[in-house]
Amino acid sequence: MTPRTGRAPVKNGGTRRGELLGIAAQLFATRGYSQTTVRDIADEAGILSGSLYHHFASKEDMLREILKEFMDDLLAAFTEIAGKDGTPRERFDALVHTSFATIHERPFAVALYQNESAVVGSLADFDFVGKTSLKIEKLWLSVLQAGRETGEFRDDLETSLVYRFIRDTVWSSVRWYNPRGKLRHDVVAEQYLAMLYGGLLAG
Amino acid sequence: MTPRTGRAPVKNGGTRRGELLGIAAQLFATRGYSQTTVRDIADEAGILSGSLYHHFASKEDMLREILKEFMDDLLAAFTEIAGKDGTPRERFDALVHTSFATIHERPFAVALYQNESAVVGSLADFDFVGKTSLKIEKLWLSVLQAGRETGEFRDDLETSLVYRFIRDTVWSSVRWYNPRGKLRHDVVAEQYLAMLYGGLLAG
Amino acid sequence: MTPRTGRAPVKNGGTRRGELLGIAAQLFATRGYSQTTVRDIADEAGILSGSLYHHFASKEDMLREILKEFMDDLLAAFTEIAGKDGTPRERFDALVHTSFATIHERPFAVALYQNESAVVGSLADFDFVGKTSLKIEKLWLSVLQAGRETGEFRDDLETSLVYRFIRDTVWSSVRWYNPRGKLRHDVVAEQYLAMLYGGLLAG
Amino acid sequence: MTPRTGRAPVKNGGTRRGELLGIAAQLFATRGYSQTTVRDIADEAGILSGSLYHHFASKEDMLREILKEFMDDLLAAFTEIAGKDGTPRERFDALVHTSFATIHERPFAVALYQNESAVVGSLADFDFVGKTSLKIEKLWLSVLQAGRETGEFRDDLETSLVYRFIRDTVWSSVRWYNPRGKLRHDVVAEQYLAMLYGGLLAG
DNA sequence: CATGAATGAGCATTCATTCAT
DNA sequence: TATGAATGAATGCTCATTCAT
């Protein structure tokens, strides 16, 4: 049950299956899905590659399961935030903070989502990726829109463009953010919100 | 062997070599480098895969050449802008506009840079990627810093974080920007600058 | 303990072992021995593949046991017929009728015998297949020969060829005979004997 | 170009592709399709297994091509015979003689047809097997039927059963007929026709 | 009797690359 | 320049079998 490497504990249900998924997620995120071989995963787990197929039907299956769990969790978290009381700005704050916190806590899943969702988007078994992404987009857009209506947010910008700019900035940070570095995720979120809200110009 | 000077591979500079590089760039960008086979490229070019080795030493060679030319051009363009007269804000405007214009004009090379630079970053033959990226980063930082010193830009934000936020937003747009769509690249640039400069809040 | 499909009960001793052999026989016959996996058998039996090894030493073991029982039974039946009183033609009638009846009653074992005996013929542990086949051949030849000597059967044909023609026709019918169809096995036997005895020509 | 074993020349177009198909046919027929590995074929051809894929898309592809060519040829031969002048009996004679001659000349393809057509019958890409078999059956049945109408053949037997009996006997002989033995194929055909026409009984 | 995890050998297939022609 | 045949290493996956529990 104890992982044989000193790696930071990866989220799993304490089961062998979950343990293997954690290893796979890390490798997929680090090397890329198609550059990661089934043997790589098995080696890291200390078993033979064929033994993985006792737990999973295919390599694709592992990727799907990792992405599915991540996206379900993410949608649930965002849905909860969007349904809370408070001003649109408060809810938007929470969305951004939660996003950076997610990058901190589940960097491999986020990286996977960033790097592989385009490749995998066309596969029928991965249709949930596009669908969930769309639901998330609608949630964020509804908060942005609500902010315009209350007068908190500017109304002279294309909301859909604003969303894309923000989404790309937030999730791209998985590429340079180091969960074990001294720059904390809530500091990053604060800095981003400060720039986003107040703008780059002085005065 | 065709001389390699003054040629724009992605725009097929008339040479067979450049034509092949353009095909490779498009496929690498669309499917990903490792998902693109040498045979894919050859098929698209109407020759057999083995024949490609008349023009290039390896598949990696093609990627390197595409990235090298792109990054050299990009650095040259940014260097020219940074050296011009005008306020920091004017020069920053030009950097952003040039970036979005580059995405418009050379989407495949930009996508390649976005998607593959992390993977190849460790390879010795691709050290120019990291080096050029660093030079570009210094250029942008110098403009941002100059803006702080002239009082145009806020000075209560971490400049290095600001740079990363901007860089990620700008280049990530290659994933959704459509060069043949009705949303023009200079409009995108204007919208982004409007949001970035003025901030998201009203008033 | 109860099989999960409504399949017609296959001959077995009422034991778990016999039940499993019945499932194996059906699958071996239907898909072919090498195309049937141990897991297929286990799935059909509602257990895990490893659990089969509680009952059998190997997959080959199952095939051997199925074939052995079938061939022993078949040889016993033919031996009894050949030892009975009556004319050679009467005994030959019985041989043919018994063969078609066997196809009706144990189609899976017959199919296995037809399809796999060539493949396993070389294996040392399956030498009983060739030996029993030879004994059966001698029995049939003795009846045919007796018929020639009594003058019932023609003597201008190669007996060994005649035997092969008949054997092949009889056992090949397992491929198209349907035990649950409306064409009964004894009708098939009668038709075959009518053609074989009287010939195809009119008059 | 010269095969390295002393094997009897297998039908092919003198091309490398045809040569490889001949080797595959022989191995498929001898060991069974699923028991034959692509390495077996490659070994026999003196190349590496991967190199086979320069010539064929898959192992299944090889089987399909072998079967397709065989069945097309067989149908063509039978079609020509059925269309000739002469009595039904003469045409039936020709059908049987041609069948045994085919077994002599192309034993591997015939064995493949006998052993694998059932397995492969369900695959969509092999639908030609069933279709061609049906055409051949109709041809034979038309000749048998014509013989009944001219009064040459008995009319008290089920024609479809008669066809199956004959078909099975003829093609099953591929299992024991030795093309290089002293028993010639036309002798086998004569013996079979003698038994079939005149019947087994004396007088 | 059965499970569940694992083995280890093997399989069809892919693919960048080489090279004689 | 390009072809066509081949290499050789690797890849995802299968499967009979073992064994501690």
TrEMBL record, chains A, B, C, D:
Question: Which InterPro entries did the record assign?
Answer: Homeodomain-like_sf, HTH-type_TetR-like_transc_reg, HTH_TetR, KstR2_TetR_C, Tet_transcr_reg_TetR-rel_C_sf
GO MF terms, alphabetically ordered: DNA-binding transcription factor activity; transcription cis-regulatory region binding
Q: What organism is listed for this UniProt entry?
A: Amycolatopsis echigonensis
Residue ranges forming the DNA-binding region read 37-56
**A Pfam family of this chain:** TetR_C_24
According to the lineage, what is the superkingdom? Bacteria
Q: What is this protein called?
A: TetR family transcriptional regulator
Domain named HTH tetR-type: which ranges?
14-74
User: Which UniProt key words apply to this protein?
Assistant: DNA-binding, Repressor, Transcription, Transcription regulation
